[in-house]
Amino acid sequence: MFSAVRLRSPALTRSFTMSTARSSARPVSLLTPKQVHDLVQSDDKSTVVIDASWHMPAAQRQPFQEYRKKRIEGATFWDVDQIASKSDVGVPHNMPSVAQFEDACSRLGIERDSHVVIYDSVGLFSSPRTAFTFKHFGHDRVSVLDGGLPRWQADNLPVDTGIPANPNPHAVAGDGSPIRARFGPIFSELLYAHKPKVESYFIADIEERFSEYKVDGAEKERKDVRQWKDMNKIIKKADAKREVIIDARSAGRFHGTEPEPREGLSSGHMPHALSLPFQAVLSPESSTTPPYRTMLSPEELEKVFEDVMGKDRWMEVKSGKRGVVGTCGSGMTASILWLALQRAGVVDNAAIYDESWTGYAARPESIIEKS
Questions:
Q1: Is the Cα dihedral 166, 19, 148, 80 positive or negative?
Q2: What is the CATH code of the structural domain delimited by 225-362?
Q3: Nearest in space to 131 (alpha carbons), one of 325, 339, 340
Q4: Residue ranges per domain, the chain?
Q5: pTM
Q6: Taking 80 as the threshold, does the pLDDT of residue 329 lie above it?
Q7: β-strand 171-172 against 5-7: which pairing, if any?
Q8: Which CATH class is domain 5-205?
Q9: Which of 310, 317, 326 is nearest to 345 (CA)?
């Protein structure tokens, strides 16, 4: 039971400083449930486990409420929709601003040298998007739990079903010392956009200003996020200079034979884009309940990319001579392709079209092909 606490003053709050000049070169690693469990149980306090679950609206699932009911021990919650910006045509969960990212990391107790381990409640669906976000902002140690929470449960590893500890990451005790969960503060229920009722187990005085943040290199160009103007330039380039565009949506949506899930939005694809449904880089569903998928091996992924791009273009991509851009419905499953590229050895020349097809097709000047 928590006693009344107050928030840490701005002078005492730790800042999160990073450079956005380029994404960190170390690729994202995929971990098994046992590897994550060993990290959680170890004496290494640098590990921060994040639940970054997100679901399509049609699924009618509430990831934050699911997190509150069941999670990996010590996990914090990363709200993909709230720690984000919107494109100028209203596409959600686009890349957050530097200030948003810094604020979220500082609230969640993530430090520059933290080992961030990300999972989701589907298996391998939304966690790659958050991994991409961390790498975009230059975070070094980033891992994804391959198979997510369903695989964790299938391996009979313990889940925490109690009330999340320390819901306010800026809380301090009466003597000014920080109240910290073992693996970092839990996502703030009071200070973020969910704004639920204050639970009886927690009372806090909320200051209007929490801390000051210094950002290094915020003005520098970001190399791994593409916008509509960038895609418009890419599709007009000659083939020898054009980045490869791979689309993670279903083949039916890509070819225009199936409708988009967003009402009123045309299906189809960008000129020169290649269809690569995200399921192609994942294993078949497990026979467990709930089922999950894992990422294919590097050798299997190379075969997938070569089959889609052709041998010559794939070798150009793998050698860094040609860039590759992932797109999907709204930037979520394109991140699965991005993670697959990382696993196949493509680290520095892969990007994501942030607003993806929802933003592209919403613009009347966009060229839409159906085939």
A1: positive
A2: 3.40.250.10
A3: 339
A4: 5-205, 225-362
A5: 0.83
A6: yes
A7: antiparallel
A8: alpha beta
A9: 317
